[in-house]
Amino acid sequence: MKTYFLLAAIGLSTASMNSQAAVVECVISGTPTPQEWSAHFCSSPTVSPVSSVVFRLNASKPIAEVTWSYHGSSGRWDCNSGQYCRFTNSSRQPSGNAEACARRVLYTDGTWESLNTCAYGTYWYGSGPILKQFDVDVSEEQLSSSANHLH
Fold first, then answer.
1. According to the UniProt entry, where is the signal peptide (predicted)?
2. pLDDT tens across 16-69, in order?
3. Engineering a disulfide at 100: which of 42, 55, 88, 132 sits with its beta carbon 3.0 to 4.6 angstroms away?
4. DSSP label at 83?
């Protein structure tokens, strides 16, 4: 009986550690300075009334498919089944926020995991001298597939 409880505790501990390994990160695109991927939260002024919040699921092993849930201000979402999810805001609302959550991930080794990891991005159309706009490019292929295993 003690062996059973010990194995059950190890199994729960391992499942808990695996859940912690995958995290949603975000970055604001269309900013006056380069941005870095940030776990759970990102924010920045933008140089254009139209900008993007780009989300990615970062995991410890290669990803085949992600199930996303998302919501935000007025704009367009491009969240297929890939490792990346992108929100592009509406020019009518140059400031706002977006949140994307990874709910399930299928890894290339055939295993899957239920998740509840999210990131929240906030942006605002800034003012002041801006020399160059920095954008984050995510191809349509990367939005739909994680075949390139980008991390």
1. 1-21
2. 344 458 999 999 998 888 899 999 999 999 988 889 999 999 999 999 999 999
3. 55
4. S
User: Model-level pTM?
Assistant: 0.72
- The domains of the chain, with CATH numbers, are 23-130 (2.60.40)
121: CB partners within 8 A, 6+ apart: 26, 27, 28, 41, 42, 43, 53, 55, 87, 97, 98, 99
Distance CA 119, CA 107 (A): 20
Q: Which residues pair with 39 in a beta bridge?
A: 25
Phi-psi region of 148 (alpha: psi -120 to 50; beta: other; left: phi over 0): alpha
In eight-state DSSP terms, residue 85 is E
Burial label for 105, CB within 10 Å (0-12, 13-18, 19+), is buried
Nearest one of 31, 90, 80 to 56, comparing CA atoms = 80
